[in-house]
Amino acid sequence: MPRDNKSALIQKIAKQAFITFKDCRSASSVDGNVLTDKLNELISLVTSVRAKDLKMMAPKNRPSSGAAEPQSPPVSYMHICETEVFSMGVFLLKTGTSIPLHDHPGMNGMIKVLYGKISVRCFDKLENSLTVPPDFDPQLAPLQTAGVWRSVLRSVAEYSENSGPCLLTPVRDNLHQIDAVDGPAAFLDILAPPYNPDDGRDCHYYKVLHSVTEPGTGAKVDQEQLGEKENEGWLLEIPQPEDFWG
């Protein structure tokens, strides 16, 4: 649980997160039985949190001195606490930076902006029912086809400190990309249960593929869209991007 120097509200959020998620570490999700008074109470607490509750302030834009500055991570993470039930921390994004598209296998999550503004694009994987994937631009290497997934773009939304939390579940909005909008941003991040590769909860990264033709038809499709059928498209699992480090 959080150390004693954290605010009373952060203490309450940690306690409520443990109560909310302690019984759903199996296949249960926030969509089902967990969507009760416990979850609503957690959402209410998270909605009220602000940067000052973590003794944080939005950084001021400083004019460049013109001298070369040491390279620092585009995104950093401030750990608050972690138990076997949930983890909680703060991500800090510099101006113009992103957390690449990634997944949360079997996990629930909440994002609450503390300062700045973020854009969140949420996806879900679909069953790979097509035996012949479409042609992509650029073309994939033969070994890459095993890492191709059909997907659906669920939503694109912006969040500020006055917004409620962005939610994800094991079955809905489980993959997302997070971009800082118009300046630096920071958000509280709760994951339940935490990432744990030994339990099959490792983080995987993806990129959106642009199909050139519909499979088996040769018909041209719009490369700027994920698809004409309910925003369906394709994702390619990739290594962690080199420009994302911390």
From TrEMBL:
GO molecular function terms attached to this record: metal ion binding; oxidoreductase activity, acting on single donors with incorporation of molecular oxygen, incorporation of two atoms of oxygen
Keyword Metal-binding: yes
CDD domains per UniProt: cupin_ADO
One annotated Gene Ontology cellular component of this protein: mitochondrion
Sorted UniProt keywords: Iron, Metal-binding, Oxidoreductase
Classification via Gene3D superfamilies: Jelly Rolls
Pfam families noted in UniProt: PCO_ADO
Protein's UniProt keywords contain Manganese: no
InterPro entries: PCO/ADO (IPR012864), RmlC-like_jellyroll (IPR014710), RmlC_Cupin_sf (IPR011051)
Protein name: 2-aminoethanethiol dioxygenase
Organism: Fundulus heteroclitus
